[in-house]
Design goal:
The protein has 451 residues and is α+β, with helices and mostly antiparallel strands. The protein has helices spanning 53-68, 118-131, 141-150, 157-160, 174-179, 211-217, 271-281, 287-294, 334-356, 373-383, 395-407, 431-450; strands at residues 8-15, 19-25, 31-38, 50-52, 73-81, 85-89, 98-101, 137-139, 154-156, 167-168, 171-172, 189-191, 198-200, 203-205, 209-210, 226-231, 235-241, 251-254, 261-267, 304-306, 324-326, 362-366, 387-390, 423-427. It has a seven-stranded mixed β-sheet with strand order 18-19-17-16-22-23-24, with helices on both faces.
Length: 451
């Protein structure tokens, strides 16, 4: 028998909103080691989201790599992170301050740019260049981690697409950079495809990957009508289709599977909202206790949450600039508010499905929130669909470990990561709750329209 330490593995590191996760995975997708290094999500003011970039983007990945590197014989590693993100760094690659994150008001839309998040990267860069005029560089989270791990200021071209039109056909556009007061050399070196960007102790290091793409790689569903829901700090909802669709209020991206596309987008109705609810109401009771408490609740008697704790990034998720609770009665107890908060996620997913116009067949969940049983039940009830719960909550890190296999030359197609997909259980809608939830959904939609 091969000793555990002699098993070839690849390592995926995911720099997330509230923690850096890492896994060491063998060729069959079996996790031999995992770690989670929490970091603080800073909210210094309304509409602002940031990290201490040195702690979250540099120290976290270094510690996570040390946690898992000895689980086997590493063949390659790769880093995933949120998009967009950006910080200013000094000549040693150390962040000079805050790392700005997706949805932060400092990246607010600028006229004439595509409405798919690109305006945020340009806005971040303009803000940081003004705040740190002497910075040696301006790097996203992947590049900060890559430099910390391997001394390489590299970024994959797929992640760099978030910077269009700053990114041109031949790399960083010098004229656009000049208008922002920076030089192309202050931005990361671009690496196309899965060529190694460098090495970490003789091990190939990939240039990076978008966390959502990594999650999609190992989610599994590729049939038209499959609904992929990632429950991290951000809720991501994608409905699979076989045609490129242009739908107002939604984004369309390629699936990892050929001839498939995903329609949907992000929302704050994931951990960003749920963590605020838990901070006010406390953690959920155990599944058994919560089920018992809900047994005394009339399914038709719940308030409705609007979960926009920050301005949403797509109109489909809502136009409210803050969260709110509607229909609170004196008879409502803590369990009413907790179940209503879980339903808010289901309503946002249902809204994405409805706007897409694609007939749904099932929901497949990934991400850390998928381990919360009452959340999965509320999602099934609100969408009136079966929910197939992913077996690995660290889905972005797992998908990044598969991407590392391409960096090592062990794979040739990212779509083959679907063979690592696994379902832990299937949650069916509860008819006792589904019909009342459908009625609340209509109220939710009317409240969204109010803004």
């Amino acid at each position: 028998m091969t000793p555990p330490g002699a098993i070839p593995v690849t390592v995926g590191i995911d720099v997330g909103t509230t923690a850096t996760k890492a896994v060491a995975v063998d060729g069959d997708g079996r996790i031999l080691a995992r770690t989670r290094r929490p970091h603080e999500l800073q909210v210094p003011g309304p509409g602002l989201l940031q990290h201490d970039a040195a702690a979250a983007w540099r120290d976290g990945p270094l510690a996570a790599w040390e946690d898992v590197r000895h689980a086997g014989v590493p063949q390659a590693l790769c880093v995933a992170a949120m998009v967009p993100s950006l910080t200013a760094v000094d000549g040693a690659g150390v962040p000079l301050g805050a790392g700005l994150l997706y949805g932060d008001a400092r990246g607010k839309a600028r006229p004439g740019l595509p409405p798919v998040g690109n305006e945020e990267f340009i806005g971040f860069l303009k803000h940081l260049a003004g705040r740190h005029p002497g910075a040696a560089g301006f790097w996203p989270a992947q590049t900060v981690a890559n430099f910390a791990l391997g001394g390489i200021a590299a970024l994959d071209t797929a992640t760099a697409l978030a910077a269009v039109p700053l990114l041109g056909g031949d790399g960083w556009d010098g004229d656009h950079c000049a208008r922002l007061g920076i030089a192309p050399e202050q931005l990361p070196r671009l690496v196309a495809g899965w060529e190694p960007a460098g090495e970490v102790d003789g091990i190939p290091l990939g240039a990076g990957v978008v966390d959502g793409l990594a999650e999609l790689t190992v989610a599994g569903p590729a049939e038209v009508g499959d609904v992929i829901v990632t429950l991290g700090s951000t809720l991501l909802c994608w409905i699979v289709t076989d045609a490129w669709l242009e739908i107002d209020g939604l984004w369309t991206i390629p699936h990892t599977t050929a001839d498939r596309f995903c329609v949907g987008g992000p929302s704050n109705a994931g951990g960003l909202f749920w963590d605020r609810v838990r901070a006010m109401l406390g953690d959920l009771p155990s599944e058994e206790e919560f089920a018992s408490l809900l047994g005394g609740v009339d399914p038709g008697d719940l308030p409705v949450w609007i979960p926009s704790v920050h301005p949403e990034r797509t109109p489909t998720a809502g136009r409210a600039r803050s969260a709110s609770l509607r229909g609170l009665e004196a008879t409502h107890r803590r369990e009413h508010l907790l179940r209503a908060a879980l339903e808010a996620t289901g309503f946002v997913v249902r809204r994405h499905i409805e706007v897409s116009g694609i007939a749904p067949r099932r929901v497949v969940t990934t991400g850390g929130g998928s381990v919360v049983g009452p959340w999965m039940q509320a999602l099934a009830d609100c969408c009136d669909l079966p929910v197939h719960v992913g077996a690995i909550p660290e889905s972005a890190a797992l998908g990044t470990a598969f991407a590392a296999r391409l960096v090592a030359g062990l794979e040739t197609d990212l779509a083959d990561g679907a063979r690592w997909a696994a379902t832990a259980r299937t949650v069916e809608p509860d008819p006792h709750w589904a019909a009342p939830a459908a009625q609340r959904y209509e109220r939710f939609v009317s409240l969204l329209a109010e803004g």
